[in-house]
Amino acid sequence: MSGKLVPLLALAWLGALASGETQCGRLDERLMYTTNEKTEPSENPWVGLLLEELPKTYRNTLCSVVIINELHVLTTATCVKRFKNRGADMNAVAMLGVWDENTETDDDLQCNEKGYCVPGPSLIKVTEIKVHPQSDRDTGDNDLAILRLEKRIEWTHWIEPICLQGSDEPESLVHRNLHYSGFNHDDSRKGKGLSMTVSRQKCKQLTSASILPPENQVCAYPVKRTKFYPGSPLMDVNVERDVPHNFYLVALLVRSVDAGQATTQIYQDVRPSRSWIMENSQLK
Q1: Residue among 101, 93, 61 nearest 231 (CA)
Q2: In a domain, 18, yes or no
Q3: Which of 69, 105, 261, 276 has the fewest C-beta atoms lying within 10 Å of its C-beta?
Q4: pLDDT tens digit string along 151-162?
Q5: Total tally of structural domains belonging to the chain
Q6: How far, in Å, CA of 67 to CA of 242, rounded?
Q7: Which pLDDT score, from 0 to 100, does residue 87 have?
Q8: Low-confidence ranges of the chain (pLDDT < 70)
Q9: H or E element that contains 129
Q10: Keyword annotations for this protein (predicted)?
Q11: Gap between the Cα atoms of 226 and 244, Å rounded
């Protein structure tokens, strides 16, 4: 598809969000300048978890999902490999509005140390999975999947979508200090951090790899070495009139690589796939 159609698709996508009466990518500027590695319960409300439904319980797949509109979430193609059955009885479930992984859906509240509380998470079954048509198992490139939900998401202050596109984006992602958020292996609560993007050549050096990373993947050097789940979003900020306005999605975490004293995050760049995402996540 021609790149000229991306702005038109973006307008249609934003119009669909507007009809749902919610803002995408909501941010609180005061929370952007802290050294806190844990989010507030309602911070980054587009990050959820992918669960596998079992006969009497749910299994955490240790993968994040990102809400993009009322009926769709985004994750990596690798995260959905376990779901062999893509039919009506598929056992994939999106857990949304979750701040603490240990909170059950029938719990009344999730609260932080300051006594700030939000309702327990919501579970919505996945009815369809669309893997990127150019997903490459050999190189790992185009590691993206769109998950359609059984019912529309009910927007709240702790369940909202992220923006898919920025208003004035830089051409290159190299040497950008970007935000990421999601769940990790060190704490059950949703975390966040900053990561500096690097060139593909630097990525090869940091990961001690024999070849360059795939063309549509981005490498970043995080401030902390905490390993986040695949599917965690890498985000940039829209600035309007010199004020941070909202977050928009840049990439999804694919994996983390430890080599020597460095941990490098490998992300799937979503920008080249925006037309595919918007076409396959229409509200119909």
Answers
A1: 61
A2: no
A3: 261
A4: 999 999 999 999
A5: 1
A6: 27
A7: 59
A8: 1-21, 84-89
A9: strand 122-131
A10: Disulfide bond, Hydrolase, Signal
A11: 26
